[in-house]
Structures are given as C-alpha cells and as structure tokens.
RNA sequence: GGGGCUAUAGCUCAGUUGGUUAGAGUGCUUGCUUGACAUGCAAGAGGUCACUGGUUCGAGCCCAGUUAGCCCCACCA
C-alpha cells in the first residue's frame, strides 16, 4: 500500500476538466483499454454502433457510449477480458448529401468533379469528422481499444461486403430485376422501404370519369394523383361489387391519352372507398404494380427520375408532375369528365433524409430476398438465443421481421461499396466477383464494366459484428470474440440495423452476432421534443462536458430513467449529478485531510457501533449495485450507490467518525481512518464504471494497491462483513437523533443551545442505547443524557417523542411552546390512529390470518404493538401538558 | 387498420418476481458563517399512485375496459 497525499485541500469544488484529460491520457498510454487486459479470462465484447461520419456526436451517442463504457468497465473490473471495439460508419446517402451541400456552396455539383474527385472530397470529409468523433469519444471517457478501430469503408470491411454479397448471390438470395422501388428525386437514388417515412398530408381526392368504349356511359374513378392517370393501364373494381358486376370485362377510354384499357376485377379494391373503382397505374403505385402482375397488364412510366413527366406522357412530357396534375384536372373539367373533388387526409411517403415526397418508380435494381433470411432471424430471437432487454422489444422485432419484404440494396450514389458485379458489353453476361475479372468467362471479351451503383449503407453495417473482427479472414480476434456479448443501441434503429445484423450474422457465420441486445430510449429536450437540427433544440454533449464534466453527464444520462424509455434532458438534472460528484469529492477531501498520520497496520482495529453499522450498510449497498448491474438496471445501480454515498456515508458515518478523528486516542483514530478508507474505496469501485474520472483521481490519492482503479476488483458484497445487531441499534439511535432534532427545530431551539435529553425504556434496551451515548450527545446536541427505566416519572415540562419502545423527552423549560407541542403531539397521535385502523382491519380479517404468510402476519402484529405503545405514550404526555 | 409505450408530489422521474407509514432530484417553507462540502447541513409541507371494474387475505404493481397523450408499423386509391 502506498499513500501519496496530493489532493489540494483548498479545492472545495471539484474541477473536472484537467483531471479528466489527465486520466484518459494516462489510461490510454498504460494500455488499459486493450483487449489484451485479462487475456486469459472469459471474453466480453461490445462492438460500438458506428457513429456516422456525417458530423459530430449528439446526446444520443453520448448515452449510447455511456452505457457501453459502463458495461465494459464493469466487466473489466470483474476480471473479464473486456473488449470494446470502436468504429465509424461511412453513412452513404447521408454523407454524400453533406458533401454535395458543401460543394454546392462552392457553386459545384458532383458532376463537375466526377466520381473520382468527388470521392476524394468525401474522404476528406470523413477524415475531418472522424477526428472530431474520436475526440468526443475520448472526452466521454470511452475505454475502447483504439488499436482495433474500424471503418465500414476500410479495406477489410469492403472485402467482407463483397464476400457476403457473393455468398447471397450464389444462393440466389441476391437478385437483380425491374420492380417498383422508392425513388427520391432530390437524393437521386432509390431508398429501401424502411427509409420511407409516412406522414399524413391534407390533400384531395379527384373524381374523374372514364367513358366506356362502347359508349354506355362512364365509370368514375377516385384518385389522389391525377397526373399518374397518363400511365393507367386498367380500371379495377372488386369482384363482389354489384354496381360493376356487368361492367367487368368492358373497356374504357383513358381520357386525354385516348387509350383503350380494360375494366378488371381485383380483390384489392375497397368497395367502401371512393366510388369503388380504382385507376391502375402499375408504374407508379406499389399496389397497382401488384395488380398488374396478377392481370398481366403493361407498365407505362409517365414520371421520370427527375420528377418530370416522360415522353410517354404525350403533350405533358417534360412538365413538372405537380404542374401536370393541375393542368390535367383543368383539362378534365373542359372535357366534362370532372365529377368533383373532395378533401382527403392520407399518408404520403417521404425520404427520411431530405423529406422529399417519394415517387414509386419501376427500375432495374438489386434486391435481397428476405423471407428465408428472416425466418432464421425470427427463430433466433423466439427460441431465446438472442435476448432483448427490455423484453418488449422482442415483439417489435418479430412482428416486423414477419412482414418483411425484399430489400432493395442498390443506391445510385458514389460514396459507398460498389456493387461487385460486372457486365459484358459483348454478350451481356452478368459476372459477380470479389475482384474485377479480366475477361468475360462466357465470351472472353474484355469489354467489362462494373455496375455503377453502390450498396445500401446498412448492407455493410449489417456485417459489423464480424467484419470488424477480421472476417472473412479467420483471425484470432474473430475466434475469441464472436459472437459478441451485447449490442447496445436505441430502439429507433432496431429495424435498420439490429435486424440486419442478426440476419447477416446467421446467414454468413451460421452464428448469431450477439447474445443480448440492450435497447435504450432517445434523449429529448426539456419539453419532451425530439432533439433535431431543424428545431435547433439539440444540446451538445461537449458543451455539457466542458461545463459539468463527463462524469456528471454520464451519471445524469443513466439515472432517473428505466431501460428503454425516453429521457428529457434538463439542466437541473445534470446539476444534480454534478453536485453528487462534488459531494463525493468533498467526502474524499475530508478523509484525506485526516490521513496524514495513517499507517496501515499501525494499531489493532476496534470497530465501534458506527463502524459496524456502516460496514453492514456497505455490504447491502454493494450487493444491490452488483445485482442491478447484472440485470442491466444501471439507473437503479447508480441510485443505490448514490443513496449510500450521500445519505449514509456522508450524512451519518462521516459525522459519527469525527469525534474519534478529532478527540480519539491513536487506536480509535486509526480504526476510524481504516473504516473510512475501506468504505470510500468500495464506493469508488462501485461508481468507477459510471463516473470513471473522479473515482480514479480520488482512488489514486487514497492508500491503495494496484496501478489503477480501472483494474481493481469490482465488489459484489460477498467479500464484506455484516453486523446486523449493531446495525439495528445504530438505526434506532438515528431515529432517536432525528426525533430530537425534530423537536428542537419545531420548538425553535437555537442551534448553539444544548438541551438535556431524557430517555425512558426497558433496562436492556437502555443499556444498548447507552453504548451510543456519544452519538446522541454529538448529533442530537445533548448536554446531559439521562436514562430511566420504564415506568419512571418523566420530566414535568418537556417535549416528547416516542420511537420504537423509547420515550424521548427534551425538558425545555422556558423554550417550550405548549400550544405548538400540543399540536405536534396530536398530529403524531393521528398518524398512529390511522395506522392502527389500517392494521386492525387487516389483523381482524380472518382470511388474512388464514392465508397470508406467517411472516407477514407477524410483521403486521409487531407494527400494531409499536403503534399502540407509541399512541398510549404520546397521549399520556398530552394529558400531562394540559 | 394493427402494435407498443406513458399516466405516481408544483415540475422531471424511480418504484425489478403483489405485503414499506409510496420514494428521489428539483422547486417550496423554516432555521443554519456546524473545524469535507452553501454544488452544503438540519427540520418540514406536499400524493384518492388517470378512471371503472375484476383476480387476491392483500394491488401503484397482475387482468379487462374507459379516458388522455406519445411512438412505431401499414398498399385503401
């Protein structure tokens, strides 16, 4: 054990800044973040959800990282081989959009640069923000193994992507085909179904007449998108719709285009909606696309990728779609084919990146066949191989997976993994390969060109748990750490990411990617709104760290919220966290200030009541913390440590220890010092995963063994001793002290004025209490203590309280306010009466007596006895005062 | 149209297998230059645990329904 006293006792306020920087650097240089620490032990691995290199980290990342770092530090302290793998995501569409924005400010478009130069700019962007993100993670205190850091677009991850693509391709699980996809005309790319956000939009339903070809009148269709009618290839009604029973099979003339199209019957139609007749535009509506496949209808694309009408739109060609809509409705009015317009609110798909309305288009794209993959993904969660915490997210996941459709993975972007497929210009052959083939295997031509599209960014993040560990190479890292232990992320990306990782892991590795998924909520602003750029209500974690310290931020983020629930970010809460850390700091200052003469083993220990009490409480608190950590109840764990530290250690034990420290003999002083060190050291260990910086700073200054608190043992309570009887007695003494303080406060006894206290109880109990007489004198401001056996005559003019068989009198001649004391007593008596009423009801209930466990009944009886005695005792005193 | 979450002190929230006199932080009241800390100490006020039923000896907690708010999914044009 060494003891170096460095703490500046003048610093009554803890200043986190320099201390946090100092320790992060120290830990990193000492190699404590390495996955080689505890190398021979059971591995514990977390792969960090890679933040996007689009920008800096927000409060959600701070929460995510705080949780992961807590888990990692905790397991490391338990002796596990803890490995937290950091990394970042290239975030295809998002980053490309940012780079394009930056170019636009220079008056340039990506086409001005060309693919290669554009990618250079994108890499510059990546380097810039990567450095920033790294800085932020270090400021948070993240103990990740930086030497193993990865990026989704690095060489290894790129190889993994190609390998996995081929794996699925060979099984026919990746295919190319012309299907209806979601097109964002702003981003100029497809997006997958989950990247489409549906918002309700107030719009109109136009009722339009399509004349029958045989001249027998017209059918009225209702549409929200008149401009698409130029691409109609049928009108559909429901089989059972009597209104149209004799019309099915006829043809109608599509107005404006003068095209003859059939009237068909399809169960998709809702007879209740509109007129029951729906126009079918297979090229611009997913449902119509399905109808067309069932009825073998042609596809006519009338809206192009630029959002303008195509040449197939006849005279409307080249026009913006919305302008076309307006003019087309006008034309229908002129033609006498407009029946009317009604208001309608309906869901419209928008791009999740830019908010542009999504245009469904038919286009040749690459898809992943999801059904067979999803089945395995569902089974793994259903049979418990992968466990969701909290468990309610299991249902969310399964129901989504059960309804999954094929995943469009090709993107018309430049920033990302190029699709590993080449086309032969000579024979049209499609060649999927890991590396660029020299010649066409079919015709030997060397006129090969690679597919120009890149893959959906989530295609590569889906491989993250194994691509980062070195796959497809058979690395030791992969052997040691796959499957990973737990994945920590927000519920908002369960579908985007968690589901994809499960599916990909099972498909490629034949093994789940992780055992557990720990889901947290999102951080909202003080009013409960989502933090967003557009609202400008985001709170920068860095600002908070600079103002309050990373420890405060971490503590605040994981307390006061239960797992999986959202949290409001309120400044008062981070202030409260800061105050707690300051409290810990000051309790440590107090301890250190009293250790100048401390020498381990100098004397024998003589544990007092207070010592035995705090050690017992420490054992309980430690056990509580340890159990809650195991259950992922981090907030509860933190709260237990907080309560113990502040309420029991600081408010009581430190006060109880002062007398021995200031006036005790060397042995007494030594014992108090030893217990202070022991309890404080234990507190620091319990809190270290949560608030690593301040705990390390203090620990290093206390007598300690080992190089760093990071590598110290995390206590679980089993190593601590307990003294239940002494602890119980101290609890009684505390109650007596509180009662006496209450009386003093109510009677407004000036602080400096000491008063006598008379205690009346059974002799055996009195003897016990007398053992804590010093505590009473000190903390209840007692001048003289008098112990009288039960039945003795109490002092005449006194205030009284009654606590667990002990009558407490404060003779306050001159100070006592009879009226106040009467009121106080009456209030106490009322409480007793209410409790007794409740207890009596229970105890006279025969079924309660018959069915409740004996223990519960005994407890209630004991309470009844106590309250009866208390009531009697107080009533007697009340009478005396009258 | 499905599914989920939330409703507990003025405010923000805990309350983990049903048994505590229902808790914390913050705010409020009162008193404190207490030899670690005013980012603090002590004492206090403040709750029909949304509502209605049910299960149970016993419900803030379990079940059903109602109301209010939030979120996710979804192809009614």
Strand order, largest beta sheet:
6-5-14-16
End-to-end gap = 64 Å
The helix content, as a percent range, equals 40-55%
Label the overall shape: elongated
> Biggest β-sheet: count, sense, barrel?
4 strands, antiparallel
- What proportion strand? 15-25%
Number of strands: 29
Overall average pLDDT: 92
What would you report as the Rg, rounded to the nearest angstrom?
37 Å
Query: What is the structural class?
Result: alpha/beta
Q: In terms of per-residue confidence, which ranges show pLDDT below 50 for 5 or more consecutive residues? A: 1-5
* Structure annotation, total helices: 26
Protein model, in words:
The protein has 882 residues and is α/β, with parallel strands linked by helices. It has 26 helices and 29 strands. The strands form 10 sheets. Strands 6-5-14-16 form a 4-stranded antiparallel beta sheet. The protein has a 4-stranded mixed beta sheet with strand order 10-11-9-12, with helices on one face. The protein has a 4-stranded mixed beta sheet with strand order 27-26-29-28, sandwiched between helices. Helix 17 packs parallel to helix 19 (666-687). The radius of gyration is 37 Å and the shape is elongated. The protein starts with 15 loop residues before the first helix and ends with a helix. Residues 1-5 have low confidence and may be disordered. The structure holds one RNA strand of 77 nucleotides.
């Amino acid at each position: 054990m060494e003891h170096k006293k460095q703490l500046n006792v003048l610093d009554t306020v803890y200043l986190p800044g320099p201390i946090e920087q100092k320790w992060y650097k120290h830990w990193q240089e000492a190699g404590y973040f390495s996955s080689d620490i505890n190398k021979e032990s059971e591995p514990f691995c977390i792969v960090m959800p890679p933040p996007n290199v689009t920008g800096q980290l927000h409060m959600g990342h701070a929460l995510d990282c705080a949780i992961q770092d807590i888990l990692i530090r905790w397991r490391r302290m338990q002796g596990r081989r803890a490995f937290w793998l950091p990394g970042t995501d290239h975030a295809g569409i998002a980053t490309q959009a940012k780079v394009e924005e930056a170019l636009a400010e220079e008056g340039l478009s990506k086409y001005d640069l060309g693919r290669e130069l554009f990618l250079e700019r994108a890499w510059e962007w990546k380097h810039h923000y990567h450095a920033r993100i790294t800085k932020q993670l270090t400021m948070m205190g993240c103990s990740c193994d930086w030497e193993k850091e990865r990026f989704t677009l690095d060489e290894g991850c790129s190889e993994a992507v190609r390998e996995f693509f081929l794996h699925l391709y060979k099984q026919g699980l990746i295919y190319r085909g012309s299907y209806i996809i979601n097109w964002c005309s702003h981003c100029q790319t497809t997006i997958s179904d989950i990247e489409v956000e549906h918002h309700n939009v107030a719009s109109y339903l136009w009722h339009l007449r399509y004349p029958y070809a045989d001249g027998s009148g017209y059918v009225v269709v209702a549409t929200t998108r008149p401009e698409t009618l130029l691409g109609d290839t049928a009108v559909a009604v429901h089989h059972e719709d009597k209104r149209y029973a004799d019309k099915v099979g006829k043809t109608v003339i599509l107005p404006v285009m003068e095209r003859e199209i059939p009237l068909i019957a399809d169960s998709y139609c809702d007879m209740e909606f509109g007129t029951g007749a729906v126009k079918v535009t297979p090229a611009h509506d997913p449902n119509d696309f399905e109808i067309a496949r069932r009825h073998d209808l042609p596809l006519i694309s009338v809206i192009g990728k630029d959002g303008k009408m195509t040449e197939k739109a006849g005279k409307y060609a080249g026009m913006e779609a919305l302008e076309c809509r307006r003019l087309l409705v006008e034309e229908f009015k002129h033609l006498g084919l407009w029946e009317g317009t009604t208001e309608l609110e309906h869901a419209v798909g928008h791009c999740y990146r830019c908010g542009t309305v999504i245009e469904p288009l038919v286009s040749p794209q690459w898809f992943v066949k999801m059904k067979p993959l999803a089945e395995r993904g569902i089974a793994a969660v259903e049979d418990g191989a992968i466990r969701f915490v909290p468990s309610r997210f299991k249902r969310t996941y399964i129901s989504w997976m059960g309804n999954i459709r094929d995943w469009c993975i090709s993107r018309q972007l430049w920033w990302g993994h190029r699709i590993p497929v080449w086309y032969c210009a000579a024979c049209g052959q499609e060649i999927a390969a890991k590396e660029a083939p020299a010649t066409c295997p079919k015709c030997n031509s060397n006129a090969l060109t690679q597919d120009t599209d890149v893959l959906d960014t989530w295609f590569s993040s889906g491989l993250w748990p194994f691509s980062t560990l070195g796959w497809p190479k058979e690395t030791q890292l992969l052997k040691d750490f796959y499957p990973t232990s737990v994945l920590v992320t927000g519920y908002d990306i369960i579908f985007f990411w968690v589901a994809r990782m499960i599916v990909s892991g099972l498909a490629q590795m034949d093994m789940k990617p992780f055992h557990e998924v720990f889901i947290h909520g999102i951080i909202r602003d003080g009013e409960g709104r989502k933090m967003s750029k557009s609202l400008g209500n985001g709170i920068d974690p860095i600002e908070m760290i600079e103002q309050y310290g990373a420890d405060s931020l971490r503590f605040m983020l994981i307390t006061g919220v239960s797992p999986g629930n959202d949290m409001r970010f309120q400044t008062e809460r981070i202030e409260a966290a800061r105050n707690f850390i300051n409290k810990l700091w000051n309790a440590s200052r107090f301890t250190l200030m009293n250790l100048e003469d401390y020498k381990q083993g100098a004397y024998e220990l003589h544990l007092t009541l207070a010592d035995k009490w705090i050690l017992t409480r420490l054992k309980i608190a430690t056990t509580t913390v340890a159990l809650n950590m195991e259950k992922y109840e981090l907030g509860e764990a933190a709260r237990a440590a907080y309560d113990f530290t502040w309420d029991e250690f600081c408010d009581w034990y430190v006060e109880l220890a002062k007398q021995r420290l200031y006036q005790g003999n060397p042995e007494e002083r030594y014992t108090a010092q030893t217990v202070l060190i022991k309890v404080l050291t234990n507190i620091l260990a319990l809190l270290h995963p949560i608030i690593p910086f301040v705990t390390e700073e203090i620990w290093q200054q206390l007598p300690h063994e080992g190089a760093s608190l990071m590598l110290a043992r995390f206590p679980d309570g089993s190593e601590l001793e307990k003294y239940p009887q002494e602890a119980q007695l101290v609890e009684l003494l505390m109650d007596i002290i509180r009662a006496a303080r209450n009386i003093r406060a109510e009677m407004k006894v000036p602080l400096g004025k000491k008063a006598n206290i008379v205690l009346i109880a059974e002799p055996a109990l009195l003897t016990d209490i007398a053992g804590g007489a010093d505590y009473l004198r000190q903390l209840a401001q007692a001048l003289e203590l008098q112990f009288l056996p039960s039945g003795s005559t109490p002092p005449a003019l006194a205030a009284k309280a009654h606590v667990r068989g002990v009558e407490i009198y404060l003779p306050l001649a001159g100070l006592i306010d009879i009226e106040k004391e009467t009121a106080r007593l009456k209030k106490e008596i009322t409480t007793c009466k209410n409790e007794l009423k409740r207890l009596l009801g229970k105890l006279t209930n025969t079924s309660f007596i018959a069915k409740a466990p004996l223990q519960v009944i005994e407890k209630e009886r004991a309470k009844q006895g106590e309250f009866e005695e208390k009531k009697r005792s107080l009533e007697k005193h009340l009478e005396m005062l009258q």
